[in-house]
Amino acid sequence: MTAISDRPQMLPEQFEELAHALARTAEGVRPEFINGKLGVKPVPDGDHGLIIEWLMRICIQSRPELWLYDQGLKVQTYRGGHARPDGTLAPSGTFGSQGEWANAGGVLMVVEVTSYDSDTERRDRIEKPRAYAETGIPVYLLIDRDSAEVVVHSQPDGVRYESIQVLPFGKTVHLPEPVGIVLDTEPLKNWVR
Fold this sequence. Notes:
Layout: H1 12-25, E1 29-34, E2 37-42, H2 46-62, E3 66-69, E4 72-75, E5 81-83, E6 87-91, E7 101-103, E8 109-113, H3 120-135, E9 139-144, E10 149-156, E11 161-168, E12 172-174, E13 182-184
Parallel strand pairs: 4-7, 8-9
Antiparallel strand pairs: 1-2, 3-6, 4-5, 6-8, 9-10, 10-11, 12-13
């Protein structure tokens, strides 16, 4: 017997319709559907944008065949989840003809940069690592501005990431294969409160 709390709030198709309507009418709202529940992501602040710009430059210089996309992804096939990572690293052209919510096949890494809001703990540190691991995304990079740490999740087993590395801003971070990029995280110290 399925508990009521285990049932999703809506079907994935209903979420897609709602997300499309919100995109046309509500500024500053980035809806997501993780673990069967509707959520919204705050609009990124300026420092958040600078972190993504910093990461994009490193990725392009290190692996020019890849691109850091702002792409909604279908995650958690079991629950029909939909996530909008802050960055999605994949080979150039991966998401052609897929629309707003693409399949995660071909994704090498997803990136989240924490926002200063009350949902960060649940969303970025608990729900998204699980959703991305269940989807089989090889690397989840969390740039945690609250703790001034970079958290690298890798080796998804279909339920969770088996390897989690936590390093303070300022350390050199080696993103594991299939990403294979090295990050000097010293500049991240400039973009935290």
